[in-house]
């Protein structure tokens, strides 16, 4: 595992150095949408990191005397049905919502990459079996299966994350396997094989760095879909338990006030929209840079 | 069970057929039928009765639609009122004799007689509905007998003075033997006949000209499904429907300001309270339970998140029930210092208390978060779990919770069963755990059981009241529940509508006088 | 690759996948915390069942047999077309699905129309003005819709078009006007993917030589673009619709709730909440099988739609 991480890190490092010197950075910056995506994601990440430090109020402290207050100096985004400061809830929620997306995406990525690597590198019946497993996962509409799993396990954030994780790994597996198959026959891998380098070492040192680019692109695009999936499950009633300031739950709770206190639903709604948009734009930009062959597609949104 | 059901092939063909009709039925239908005499009503539950079999009577929810009727109805004062039966007498401790109304015509043209009453009770109610009905009505199969064409007798399993009020319930209805409710064929005696049903969408009924109480004003009523309060409110505001039950709380103020909408509120037979599991640590400690009571301000809840709809409660029973205690009960005005003292006296040791609430309870998420915040202030940590009904029942059946926020409402004038089922050791909430582990949930046992039995079996209104009030006092003394508010329900309608006849039991509304002023 | 071996392989793998799908679907039941028999029975009885009752229930439903045998029984019934009956009514699950399906299909079809109506002009505009501000604005516009949680979009559309402007109904099903807002909500989400696809395949086609031939014949540029290029560019768009079926079903779950349409999604959510496991299994299996079969058909028809495609490549 540490070898794998190390090699990914070194690959990213190499790419970063290459990025600085080559035309890649220029390519990325040439499209303002890419820059916009990067800026949004950076902003959200900063909010998630320092949010709780700068939030003006406690996210769960109620103030019934000041409920449903519109945006003002004291409460820039207003207060909710229990008089809680919406800005503070949003800032605390950034960490939570982004954390969920990162965690789910990481599980998907690790699981999918491992399976894809194994399938692509081993070949034969192992490949065949693993790819059928991938087909089976892809046969279920993601949110439908996640809803069933989370519903049976019971409503909680942990179960939502679990459900979203197990319905999204297959696209990584398929992507990684494809890249591995293409890379496997390239000269440097053949050379390593002739030099009796161990299979594990070939996989981690030579194959993994080559799949890193497309996988990073897919993971970036995936962040958005996970956030939307969480919001959808929260709306159905399987999300976070009160008073957790998770964005999807805040949006779902606020919808009853859409006509009377628009900010309660629309503030987390816009936050979700911007975050998803940011990750999608960034993912598209990264694809131009890291995956020029456009091997990653995101036709199946969950 | 399945022998009367159609074969799978028949069902499949029927399904495909319905599918095609469904697609073909995409033609425009008039959204707001302005023709006089037709009204669209949106109740709180799906009128076509998807979901819980409790509420599903042959594909139609028995409530609201006034297609089928019971022998007894309820007055606005929650007293039994003659309906398909004109009179009843207890001939001994356990026998009730009912005189039937003559000249009542079923929707198929036949006259209702004692045979239909015996059939409905013996076959449909006592057999098909299952065992729970026996405990509820205190009648077992084989104890309903025809005396003559218009007289029927019932033998209860024990003295049960509340019997007439208990069978005044929409589900205890009379249908002839010919009605095959499983096939969706419903033949009632009510002022409206079932005309058309689209599963999960709407149900249409038409005026029954031969209704024994005289033909109703409306020619046609459509009951639409919209279980979400915001959707119901939107439907009314957009003019797609004429009358809705329970608009979203956040919208009530806005609706009041509109000239084209009238708002009616009616105190309901329901009340909202937190019931405490007194057989689980640490809520088995009465000091802690009292502390939880002292931490809450009912007034504040009603005036803020409920927008003034509802009355602050000091007991578990709606005050429309004539033996409900309110002022006689110990008052728990909010007093945080006292609450903190009680907490420190108690065995509470900083652990998390679990509070359950059902996910589709109106304002449930909001209320439970208020509890959470208030208890935080007295040093008690509350872990909230909003669950769907199945998980919730699972947890309460096992007693794996400390607090449960819920509504208790009587759908018949005799509300005895609220006391019995919640607080008597042999009531439905407590019986299983009592029998299995000698515990229960909300049962103090001993004297409270005796008082509930006395109230339950007493023919004398004063004696009954005295016993029940004493039981409620003990329950509140020991802090078994945290009363929040007596429910009021809201009906919002087109301002042109006249002749609304609401009832403390929201499901007892009559539509016979409904007209439109133009 | 020859057609015959390809077909055999394709059908073979589809069968394997379907078998796997059935195992997963059946296995869902075992995710329930606690003993399924006890959970089901306490639901049905509305109280805690006794040990004896649980035993009797297990025996009656073959739940005392080893799990593989139970699965085999279930699968045999399913293969005969019998998905079982709902716990709470005597309705057969096949009938429940077939009753709810038309509303969902109607919504899906209308959303595809909306998505295409949005995606084709936007994608073409984007491609023709490649690299310009128009291109970027179109791409961004297409992405905004897909970035919104669709229940939020649905409620906003109700607020604007049903309550403020009063042009479409709030909720319900049965008429065309009631279909508009849900279809727009669901279609907007799908439009982003399609726009991107129209744009890139337009770019591919625009780069091909024969357009120059067409242009040189003196036809006006616009007609060239729309007639020749678009027709060729739409081939991959049509084929991706099969893959999009899953996305449509995902969206339908939420949108049917928002707009009170008793379709497949609402049936599933109700069943999940009621723990009506046979219905949950039936719908899950049905959607997965529909997806596998649709994609098999799409794969096969691909060959006829676009003769340039060589069979046997990885579908992605």
TrEMBL record, chain A:
It is found in: Cell membrane. The keyword Glycoprotein does not apply. Keywords: Cell membrane, Membrane, Transmembrane, Transmembrane helix, Transport. Residues 94-283 form the ABC transmembrane type-1 domain. The chain crosses the membrane at residues 24-50, 96-121, 133-153, 215-240, 260-282. GO terms for cellular component: plasma membrane. It comes from the Archaea. GO terms for biological process: transmembrane transport. It is a multi-pass membrane protein. CDD domains: TM_PBP2. Its main location: membrane. Belongs to the binding-protein-dependent transport system permease family. OppBC subfamily. PANTHER family: D,D-DIPEPTIDE TRANSPORT SYSTEM PERMEASE PROTEIN DDPC-RELATED, OLIGOPEPTIDE TRANSPORT SYSTEM PERMEASE PROTEIN APPC. This is Binding-protein-dependent transport systems inner membrane component. It comes from Natrialba hulunbeirensis JCM 10989. The lineage of its organism: Archaea, Methanobacteriati, Methanobacteriota, Stenosarchaea group, Halobacteria.
Automatic annotation (TrEMBL), chain C:
PROSITE patterns: ABC_TM1. Keywords: Cell membrane, Ion transport, Membrane, Nickel, Transmembrane, Transmembrane helix, Transport. Pfam families: BPD_transp_1, BPD_transp_1_N. InterPro entries: BPD_transp_1_N, MetI-like, MetI-like_sf, Opp2B. Residues 101-298 form the ABC transmembrane type-1 domain. The chain crosses the membrane at residues 12-31, 107-128, 140-167, 179-198, 233-259, 279-298. It is a multi-pass membrane protein. It comes from the Archaea. It is found in: Cell membrane. The keyword Ion transport applies. GO terms for molecular function: nickel cation transmembrane transporter activity. The keyword Methyltransferase does not apply. One of its GO terms (cellular component) is plasma membrane. Belongs to the binding-protein-dependent transport system permease family. OppBC subfamily. This is Binding-protein-dependent transport systems inner membrane component. It comes from Natrialba hulunbeirensis JCM 10989.
